Each structure stands twice: as C-alpha cells, then as structure tokens.
Amino acid sequence: MSLGGGEKKAEEEKAEKGGELLFCGATCWDIVGRKKPAPDANLVSPTRLRPLVGVDIRFVASGCASCHCVALDAEGRCYTWGRNEKGQLGHGDKIQRDRPTVVSELSKHKIIKAGAGRNHTVVVTEDGLSLSFGWNKHGQLGTGSVKNEWEPSPVRCLVSEVKVAVCGADFTVWLTSIEGASILTAGLPQYGQLGHGTDNEYNTKDSSVRLAYEAQPRPKAISSLAGETIVKVACGSNHTVAVDSNGHVYTWGFGGYGRLGHREQKDEWAPRRVEVFQRNNVLPPDAVVSAGSVNSACTAAGGQLYMWGKIKSTGDDWMYPKPVMDLSGWNIRCMDSGLMHHFVGADNSCISWGHAQHGELGYGPNGQKSSAVPKKVEILDGMHVISVACGFSHSMVVVDRMNVEDRLNQLDVYDGKVLAEESEEPVTKSPILKRNTKSGTNKASENSKKRKKSKDLSESEDEEEDGDEDSDDDSEKANGKAEGKSKTSRGRGKGKGDKKPATEKKGTGRGRGRPPQKNSTQNSQVKAGNRGRPRKS
After folding, report:
1. What is the rounded distance in angstroms from the CA atom of residue 245 to the CA atom of residue 503?
2. Is the pLDDT score of 537 beyond 50?
3. How far apart are CA 102 and CA 448, in angstroms?
C-alpha cells in the first residue's frame, strides 16, 4: 500500500518533529548474552526512560549484535547508553551508562543518522560527515588504520557526502551521494560481507594452519555496484541487504539459513541480485528494508512484507523471500530485527514477534514471552510509530505524542541509576563474604577470588576475540547466543562448587561462606533491580 502525496508529507513532518521514546527488554547490559539476568532487570512492557521523558526523539539505532543504544533528538543531539567495554558509547571511557547520556564531543555537530555494531557506533552529521567510536580491531571505524584498537571518543571516518551509515557486528556500510561510489564498506571481511569479492583470508604463519582475515580499515566503494545508485541498506551480524534506485535487491555475506535469499546457503563475497524482486515486484521508493541476525526482510510491490532466512526457532528455514501473509494489507512504515525478534510500525499500531527471553516484544507481565506469529503490542494500540530499533535483547519505539499524551503519562518510567553501581558492588563490597570469612581463611579466600576474577576476565576477552566466528555460526541457533552461554557458565560454576566442599569441609567459615558469595551477588542484583524498577510518574 503506497501513501498519497498529502499523507506522505504528513509522515515526514511527524518524523522530523520526533516523539516519545519507549524501551522494552534487558537492561543488565554487562551480563546479557553471557549469564542469565535477574528477572527484575527486564522491562517487559514499553517503558519511558527518565532522561528522555518529554524529549523529541527523531531516530533510534541499535543492532542485532548490539548491547547498546543510540537515540537522536530533533535538535541533533546524540544520546548513548548500554554496554561500553570498548568505548562504543563515545564518552571517552569504558564506563557503562544505564541512563541515556548526551555524547558531549558531538555537541558541535547536528547528528541525523546513526548505526550500532557489536562494539562500535557510527553517526552521520547534517553536513555529510561521518564519525565513529568504539572497537576498531577490524577497521570497522573507517579511520584508515587499526593502530588504535579502540577509540572511546568520536573520530572522523574517511568518507564524505554521507547520507546513511549502518553497522553489522564488526563492519560498517556507508551510503553517499557520490556518483559511482554510492556504497562503501569497511571492517571485517570474513564472510564476504564487505562485498569486494574476497574474504581476505590468510595463514597467520607459513607453518600454521590457523586462519585470519585481513582487516579493511579504509572505506572502499563496492566496484560491482559502481553503475547503480544504492538508496537503502541494512546489515545483519555478517550479511548485507541493499536496494538500488530501480527497486532491485542485492544481498551478500554469510549465507547460512538462507538469509541471502538465493535458495542456497553459500556465502556470497560480492553483491548478488535477489531474483524474486524483479519486473513487477521491484521495491517502491518508500520500501522498508531490515536485516536480523539470521534473516532478512523488505516490503515490495503493494507494501507486502517478504522475509527469508531463519524465521522461527523451530521449523524449516525460508531459503528465498516469501510473503508474510499475517501482515498483508498493513501499511508498514518502519521495521527492525534483533537477534531473533522483530518490531514493525504499521498504520496506528505496533506489531512484534519472534523468540524472546527478556521482554523485548513488549507484551507486558501477563503476556506471552515469545510469539511465532506477528502480534499487536496492545499497550501501544492506536499510537503512531515514527521509528523502531531492535538490539541483541531489547527494542526501542518512538511514538507520536499527538492525542496520546494522557496514555503515555500512564506508562512506567525507568530511572536506571543503580545498574552502573551494581556491577561494582560484588567486587568492592562483598558484605556476606566478609561476615562469613574467618581470620585463618582470609588469604585463601582472596586468592580464590583473584583466580575467579582472572578466569572471568579471560572468558570475557575470549568472547570478544572469538565473537566474529561464534556470533553468526554457532550462536545463531534457535535460542541465540544468550542461552548457550548461560548454560556453559552455570555448568562451570556448579563444577567449582561441587569440588570445594570436599577440601573445605573442615574450615568452619569458608565451607559455608563460599556458596552465599554467589547468592550475595545475585541478591545485590535483585535489590538493585528493585530500586531501579519502572515506576509510574
């Protein structure tokens, strides 16, 4: 369904004006995807965020591999919050932010677009510049160098006349107004997601069989698309979907689960046109394009939504684009996909579906956790959605305030101020451990704590280092990365606990004090979660 001239103009005016940002999903940024968070750390209904109440938000961005968020207001200010282990929030440090915070070093620019990867962020200014911050191991910041592995403050990307920037897990795509170079890419080429016809694979040493992938830190135009003008683009973890000015769709990168739509699971190192969207089924100018971790989607002729890839956690994969009949007849204006969930703004409704574990579908405390079919988010029914964004386990929706101000005032407001302290408390205070530790076991207890801490740090580093291979292949199964990792960590913890009592039984304080240490961490998280729970304004 296409909009008339007057309706289209009204849509653009609403988007320009901005609206209220609502959030649902996981808020325990440091542990989501690694351990099972406390239930109190999830916002299961669309919730307002205290620092953004009344702020006109025009655009939101996250990514299917992202545990951080970006929001842009009507004045061009850029707010970021969430995980910050690689400086991806742009505040000059690695301190986690649980409340949306203005990126002060971008204050002299008016930011109009943004994209978020696993550990990096890229923004676009009104005058066509692009700046980036966060992890740069694979050159995904587009600065032309990988000398600095992480950049905690905004740096210039080597591109100009930029209109849009979007991010995959460890790569970035820019759209520009330069003829013959309308699409440029930089970052990790492991699965061919940069579109330059190679994965830049090499042996780390002459005598070694270990493979590595040469980073591409300088943004490079995709030569096979030099004759086309690319107008829309979306990135999954390791694949890319693009649309040219003629309405043709191209995909390339990791081919698992059929997410490229070519009826096979082969990786594509260069853009390949999707056969379904040709002749009478090319994409209209107002089409919506989206890419999730393991799937892709777009609206074609008549506004019909098509999807392909891994659509459900069970059942067959869709190896080529198929219409989603449940959404036939809806005027879909915006869509985004996360790890295994989807959000759509259509007519005066918000629709979500997919596999979810943290309330990211927004169905509320009494609603179902996951849904195999598209379903209305009832609390938002009748509201006009301006923009949506999905992250690893969270969702953001921007709604027009017109005629729904009273309903918005009834929604919960989340403060989120205690979560930053929460990650520090178990290390610095550990009150229960102190009460149960006797003088004779002080030294041994400290040593075990150090061993545990060093092990956790090494596991965390391994996860980030190996993320390129793990996130898309092994972890993109039915339940995603989070469930697989939480089971592993629980198994290890249990093994430790089982061994300790045999050797520590005689120690009166330590044998009893060890397990409560684990509980104390959980208890402190629960308490912190309770203090930071949404409350009505």
Report:
1. 70
2. no
3. 40
